[in-house]
Design a protein that fits this description.
By secondary structure, the protein is of the alpha/beta class. It has a single domain, classed as 3-Layer(aba) Sandwich (Arginase, Chain A). The chain has eleven helices and nine strands. Strands 2-1-3-9-8-4-5-7-6 form a nine-stranded mixed β-sheet, with helices on one face. Helix 4 crosses helix 7. The longest helix is centred in the N-terminal third of the chain and has 19 residues. It is globular.
């Protein structure tokens, strides 16, 4: 499978302090895959189009507050990577992609943000794919153990978006009208996590494009609520790839701070793809 990685060195320079230290070391850990042409790398470019998309998704007050906090540039650049990676997939330049970010996205709603998330990168990409390429239906699988409230706020009422949300809470919910499915997994181990994945994938969904919001804070060494080990990530990626079948598949980096965890999990996912 032709795999594209979106990476910018500024993610590690100017990213959120909790997230940025993992970026450069985990990318360096992929250099042999790059030199062997097993993955391709593209550098995001911050364009007026990205700024315009942010203005469509988020309120002026929200944007002003992000600027005040000093993270506008790296958050917008992170969105550029996701949007431009999605465009490459839509144009058939790759079959799968993985986007590094300097600031995550799934806690950013229309008018508020928290948890190192400033602009909702996946929501921007969905809007862009609809406007530019006429794609209509999407599946968003969020396996960051913190609830994807921003994504639910922005995409939850769109009947053409399926949102499968794995989180370290205890309540599971199913909304068959708007296709929002929450899987409360508590302190999930590998077995519990994969069982939930099988349950989620047992349903039939209509989608043209699949996003995976991937937080390696799900690892037992990292700060999230799950207790996953190194062994589960390549298995997870293989199952996701099989489920996506011939549809574009895009992994978007989310939470996680441990450098050692980032290096092993990201590499194992890319090798599985």
């Amino acid at each position: 499978m032709k795999v594209l990685v979106l990476y910018h060195e500024d993610f590690g320079r100017y990213g959120h302090p909790v997230l940025k230290e993992r970026v450069a070391p985990s990318f360096e850990n992929l250099k042999d895959l790059v030199s062997e042409n097993r993955i391709q790398v593209a550098t995001p470019v911050l364009t007026p189009e990205i700024h315009a998309l942010i203005e469509q998704i988020h309120t002026p007050e929200h944007i002003a507050q992000v600027k005040e906090e000093g993270f506008y540039y790296v958050a917008a650049l992170s969105c550029a990577g996701v949007v431009q990676g999605a465009a490459a997939l839509a144009e058939g330049k790759a079959e799968a992609a993985f986007a590094y970010v300097g600031a995550a996205g799934h806690h950013a709603s229309r008018d508020r943000f928290w948890g190192f998330c400033y602009f909702n990168d996946v929501a921007l990409a969905v809007l862009y794919l609809k406007q530019k390429y006429g794609l209509k239906s999407f599946l968003v699988l969020d396996v960051d153990p913190h609830f994807g409230d921003g994504t639910r706020d922005l995409l939850g009422k769109d009947p053409e978006v399926v949102h499968l949300n794995f989180y370290a809470g205890w309540e599971s919910r199913a909304d068959d009208v708007y296709h929002n499915y929450d899987f409360g997994l508590g302190a999930a181990d590998d077995e519990t996590f994969l069982e939930a994945l099988e349950e989620a994938f047992s349903r039939s969904y209509r989608f043209d494009f699949m996003f995976v919001i991937f937080g390696h804070d799900s690892h037992f060494k990292d700060y999230g609520g799950f207790r996953l080990t190194d062994a589960v990530y390549p298995v997870f990626a293989e199952k996701v790839q099989k489920f996506a079948a011939d549809k574009p598949l895009f992994f978007v980096l989310s939470g996680g701070s441990r450098v050692d965890v980032a290096k092993t999990t990201i590499r194992s996912i890319l090798l599985a793809l």
